Task: inverse folding
């Protein structure tokens, strides 16, 4: 059950959203993206085979609308007290059998008025049915405004991300240690993932580490470690293989964790034995690009400038053709959330944002190099939340 002192953070976010709705002349907002529902309610159903809706109105209390099967779970974990249901399951008394009819029952007093929905996410069929029943005067997208709200983290969110950062540090530490012993990608990743779960059980067992499931599957464990070597680094994300890194290789273990709905990541490129000149040059350039970002990282600098200072290093080193699309991204309820550190993004860094710093390059012929840290922006600079070795990392195999 959610602690009363934690509920206030979610309710404060709802009030902030309702104030914005008043300014926009918006009578109601319907949210269904799992990350956004959690952001405002604290509830993650884990399995989204029947979607969850958070309905916010300016003139009535918030409503968390779940399938009857999820009712007890929602009552136990949601910061929103008004939990209503749709669909038939057990002894729950639903507002309606169909989700769109239940949403309309909640919004009966807003028919014909301006409403907001996540137009970059919402199921088109559901959107058409809801509009056909409510006949709103206008439907506005709230995807952008919600993303902007999620940019600045409160103390509850930062505390969750700190826990996740400790977990990914342990995951990377153990994965690197096993790779140094000659383990395969899969063997080392397994040990790293086990170490993360053990630390969770020992230190954070009252925190949920479930992820956001899809409409056809759940995610009961969001503690992930994987490892890719050489040309497969260019894949970015893939299952580790039973490949034993050998001298001359680059290998990249990556760890992600989610604690009570909030992410952190730690990624480290390893040089195995003596690497060739190209790989060494790329590795040194990556470290220099990171150094350049951290030199200027503070509130007021724009994201485009962070990208530029990293890209200049790679270009000067002869890697202009391999420049990444971004050198970092936001972190929070999503592993990759708004904003990205890209050219042309003139949004300014602000205190209490959480981002990754990960200027890397990849090439299908030789692999890639990237260290990724989870970083909290502070009033005058930054705090790196992931603490595992961020310099040159060599492992030497006998």
Result:
């Amino acid at each position: 059950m959610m602690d009363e002192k934690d509920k206030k953070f979610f309710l404060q976010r709802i009030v902030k959203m309702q104030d914005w709705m008043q300014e926009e002349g918006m009578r109601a907002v319907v949210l269904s993206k799992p990350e956004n529902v959690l952001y405002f309610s604290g509830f993650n159903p884990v399995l989204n085979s029947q979607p969850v809706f958070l309905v916010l109105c300016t003139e009535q209390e918030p409503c968390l609308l779940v399938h009857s099967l999820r009712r007890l779970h929602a009552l136990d974990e949601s910061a929103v007290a008004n939990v209503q249901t749709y669909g038939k399951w057990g002894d729950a008394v639903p507002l309606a059998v169909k989700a769109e009819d239940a949403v309309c029952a909640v919004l009966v007093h807003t028919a014909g008025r301006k409403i907001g929905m996540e137009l970059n996410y919402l199921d088109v069929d559901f959107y058409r049915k809801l509009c056909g029943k409510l006949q709103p005067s206008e439907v506005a997208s709230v995807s952008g405004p919600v993303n902007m709200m999620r940019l600045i983290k409160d103390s509850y969110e930062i505390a969750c991300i700190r826990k996740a950062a400790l977990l990914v540090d342990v995951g990377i530490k153990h994965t690197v240690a096993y790779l140094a012993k000659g383990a395969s990608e899969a063997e080392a990743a397994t040990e790293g993932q086990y170490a993360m779960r053990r630390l969770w059980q020992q230190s954070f067992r009252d925190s949920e580490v479930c992820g956001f499931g899809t409409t056809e599957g759940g995610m009961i464990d969001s503690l992930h470690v994987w490892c890719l070597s050489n040309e497969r680094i260019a894949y970015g994300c893939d299952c580790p293989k039973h490949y034993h890194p050998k001298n001359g290789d680059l290998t990249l273990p990556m760890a992600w964790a989610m604690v009570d709905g909030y992410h952190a990541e730690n990624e480290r490129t390893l040089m195995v034995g003596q690497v060739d000149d190209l790989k060494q040059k790329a590795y040194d350039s990556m470290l220099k690009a990171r150094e350049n970002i951290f030199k200027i990282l503070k509130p007021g600098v724009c994201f485009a400038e962070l990208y530029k200072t990293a890209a200049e290093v790679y270009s000067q080193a002869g890697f202009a053709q391999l420049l990444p699309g971004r050198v970092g991204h936001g972190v929070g309820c999503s592993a990759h959330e708004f904003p990205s550190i890209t050219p042309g993004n003139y949004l300014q860094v602000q205190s209490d944002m959480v981002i990754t710093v990960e200027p890397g390059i990849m090439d299908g012929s030789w692999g890639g190099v990237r260290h990724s840290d989870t970083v909290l922006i502070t009033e005058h600079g930054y705090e790196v939340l992931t603490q595992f070795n961020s310099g040159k990392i060599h492992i030497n195999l006998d």
The chain has a mean pLDDT of 96. The CA atoms of residues 210 and 220 lie 5 Å apart.
